[in-house]
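Hi there,

I know you've been waiting on this one. I reran it after we fixed the sequence typo, so this is the corrected version. Both the input and the resulting structure follow.
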Amino acid sequence: MQLPSSCAAALVGLAILAATPSVRANNITTSAGSLVDDNGSQVYVQFDVTWENSWRTSFEPNNWDAAWIFVKYRTADGLWHHASLNRTGHTAPIGSTIATGLVDPASPYNVFTNPGVGVFLHAGGEGSGTFAVNGVQLQWEHNADVTGLWEVEEVRVFAIEMVYVPQGAFAAGTGGTESNAFTLTTIDTGMATAAPGGTGGLGGEAGGYPTGQTAPANASWPNGFNAFYCMKYEVSQQGYVDFLNTLTYAQQVARTTSATAPNSAAGSGALSATNSNRNGIDIQTPGTASTVPAVYACNLNGDATFGDPTDGQDIACNYLGWDDLTAYLDWSGLRPMTELEFEKACRGTMAPVGDEFPWGTADIADVAYSVPNNGANNEFISAGYSTVSGNASYDVTDGAIDGPLRVGIFAANASNNGRLSAGASYYGIMELGGNVWERTVSIGSDNGRTYTGTHGNGLLEADGQSNVATWPAPTTANGAGFRGGAWLLPAPYIRVSDRSLAGTSGVGPAPHDGGRGARLAP
């Protein structure tokens, strides 16, 4: 099964810069690289990439994992910008595939949206194990961004592990006892406005939205039928650090706690002032007089060494409000997922099970976990891990931990024997139940139904907010809600079809707030 991974950044040395070593966050790594073959308007960003426990299969669930890769560059004024990648012209090494754009722009629900923001890289054929390729080349249309490469002082390549969720019908709701659940409906069309009716192959009626709900405002509302990618893991703390370290001072102010400005003393907490509830993001180097941004790093143990092996880089990032999460997703070229996509990502094409959890049964571990190697990338569960019930971090199993666990911890356990003990979804997506809340767009609210699924463009407003007008507003979260439960809440919230807070538009942040993103598949 999959091991933990999320977002990694690697500095790519320009010809005028010294070589930079590779940087690793969790188990996806992009190497130091170079800019090659500049023709005056285009240049290749060349690098290597590797991650462990990758897969691609033509059998059920007929999917694969992938890396969503995008590029940022820094100019002499210290500002970071998003690189405009070409739609075509990239070089995929043997054994790999690069996908950009969308394949059916004429379709009413499959439109091109920011195809140059990033690319998907995945295995070119079936197999499993460590995925590693050298010499990936992404063609950067640099004349769209700068006058010439002499303006560029640094380039960074970012990679986020994703999981492909294939197109196909799925069940929304189960007919169980979940709170406020959808009436069981088979979603069997990508036309999200198609009214339910007749008999659904997986139960209930069939249509583009659940029986009894109001239709979305547009047919392209992401109802889960069309293929999409979902982040394999919740945003990790190192992933959020990478994000913070490309922002301006003013943007950092907005994306960290108001009590801890970027010019606070080194060691000051960025999201949790005292590193409480296992959030260890600290200021490593203070900013200067609102002009020079701070440098952030993980420092869970609070000592004088930042980013050491026990500083919690792989722990799911909590204390993320809706505005923080949407800023991160906009910056990375992803988007929020909808609550119907959430149910599809959990359940897949299987017939629903009443009161089921994301691993497909109604059974859940019920003994408090013990977690040695606190904060390390190999922290593990030494006691309480179940091999017969699904594992998840919630109020019973959290015990004395008092915060989220590292992403992928259940799959990485030596006693893991499959989807159930790994706490994995049908498609191999991790921790969709427990740990930190999943923030989704709700079909149950007027604002949520106007969502179009537009992807982020890699850019933020000057005040650090996302700039995608069709998303639920970052300052109000109207149209967004909560799914999947969290480490300090009871087990019923973890049930796939539980909608207790699906329409609750809390901005946050709170110690159990986090999330992940999605993107329509090419």
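Quick highlight: The chain has three domains: 7-164, 166-236+314-522, 237-298.

Best,
R. S.
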